[in-house]
Amino acid sequence: MKISTKGRYALRMLVDLAEHQGDGYIALKDIAERQAVSKKYLEQIVPVLNKSSILGTNRGFQGGYRLNRAPESITVGEVLRLTEGNMAPIKCIETDGYIDCERSEGCPTLFVWQGLKKVIDDYLDSITLRDIINKKIESYSNDYII
Q1: Can you tell me the distance from the alpha carbon of 142 to that of 12, in angstroms, rounded to the nearest whole number?
Q2: Residue 84 contacts by C-beta under 8 Å, 6 or more apart in sequence?
Q3: CA-to-CA distance for 20 and 133, rounded, in angstroms?
Q4: Which pLDDT tens digit goes with each residue over 7-27?
Q5: pTM score > 0.85 for this model?
Q6: For a designed S-S bond to 124, which of 39, 77, 99, 117 qualifies (C-beta 3.0 to 4.6 A apart)?
Q7: Is 142 helix (H, G, I), strand (E, B) or coil?
């Protein structure tokens, strides 16, 4: 399983919005500049995030984007499932609760893939945008220069 640039950039965009949430609506060009990401690419990601309850938009002068929810309520898993789809490591377990494989009843390795999916989901759902910001702040505060 690989996370595409779409998933990575969406996460970076949302972390940026979380870091600047006190600034009101943020222009996409400002996010693109700070994150060193193409504005055009972010424009392709916005519709996916708009379909969820995560992103708020405002058009016109002073328009832009902001988080609709607190950073501590948005998980990495939620963002990646929006942008990447299911995080299953193999196709036959992509649909929750349904095994899409004619060999599943006798498959000796099915439990391995189900366990891996659970570990991935649990891990990604345990990290919030707030956690990412806190980790970033922590890493900067440990950077002493004498």
Answers
A1: 22
A2: 3, 4, 6, 7
A3: 11
A4: 999 999 999 999 999 899 999
A5: yes
A6: 77
A7: coil
